[in-house]
Amino acid sequence: MGNAWWNLTLRFLLELAALLGLGVAGWNLSEGWWRWVLALVLPLVAAVLWGTFAVLDDPSRSGRAPVPVPGTVRLALELIILFGGAAGFYAAGYTTTGIIVALHIAISYAFSLDRLGWLLKQ
């Protein structure tokens, strides 16, 4: 799979943006002590899911899969977390940021068609 260095870098930055977007949503869409809980727990849960459920021998990752899942499950998880972060920015009032993040997610996947095909065959 020939993901270019720039796309791997973009993907990593989008993963970080998704965690931030989930935290921002947790903070801005709740009040009181809940905002602290959600701002910390939402990104933490997403990071744990991201790192735990993977396709065995995925060349775009370490190849390790603590909990091996089919490619379609992994793809769904990625899309939910990444677009969830973009939606988090959007819902929290950072509309432009949410749209920009979502567009970059689409661009990254558009340049990862080989990986998408690989995932769907697993």
How would you describe the overall organization of this protein?
With 122 residues, the protein is mostly helical. Helices cover 75% and strands 3% of the residues. It has five helices and two strands, in the order ααββααα. The chain has helices at 5-28, 32-52, 71-91, 95-110, 113-121; strands at residues 53-54, 67-68. Strands 1-2 form a two-stranded parallel sheet. Helix 1 (5-28) packs across helix 3. It is globular, with a radius of gyration of 15 Å. The protein starts with a helix and ends with a helix. The model has no long low-confidence stretch (mean pLDDT 93).
Look at the helices and sheets and give the structural class: mainly alpha
Number of helices in the DSSP assignment = 5
Calculate Rg over CA atoms.
Answer: 15 Å
CA(first)-CA(last) distance: 14 Å
Strand content: under 5%
Strand order of the largest sheet: 1-2
- Round the mean pLDDT to the nearest integer and report it: 93
Which regions contain 5 or more consecutive residues with pLDDT less than 50? none
Overall strand count: 2
Helix % is over 70%
Assembly level: single chain
Outline the biggest β-sheet. 2 strands, parallel
Shape: globular
Give the tags:
122 residues, mainly alpha, 5 helices
Q: Short description, anyone?
A:
With 122 residues, this protein is mainly α. It has helices at 5-28, 32-52, 71-91, 95-110, 113-121; strands at residues 53-54, 67-68. The longest helix is centred in the N-terminal third of the chain and has 24 residues, at 5-28.
Question: What layout of secondary structure does this protein have?
Answer:
Elements: H1 5-28, H2 32-52, E1 53-54, E2 67-68, H3 71-91, H4 95-110, H5 113-121
Parallel strand pairs: 1-2
Helix pairs in contact: 1-2, 1-3, 1-4, 3-4, 3-5
